[in-house]
Amino acid sequence: RADLLNALRCLFRWGQEKHVAGIGQALVVEQVSPLLDDADSQRRMLGLHLLPWVRKAEHFCHDKLIEVALSDAGHDFKVAALDSLRLSQDAQKLIKIGEIDRICQLLSTDSSEPRDVRMAAARLLGAFVRKDGRVVDILISFAKRVHRDAEEFRVAIRSLVSCGPTDKKIHAFFESEISDYLRTNRKQSDLA
Question: What is the rounded CA–CA span in Å between residue 176 and residue 3?
Answer without folding.
Answer: 43
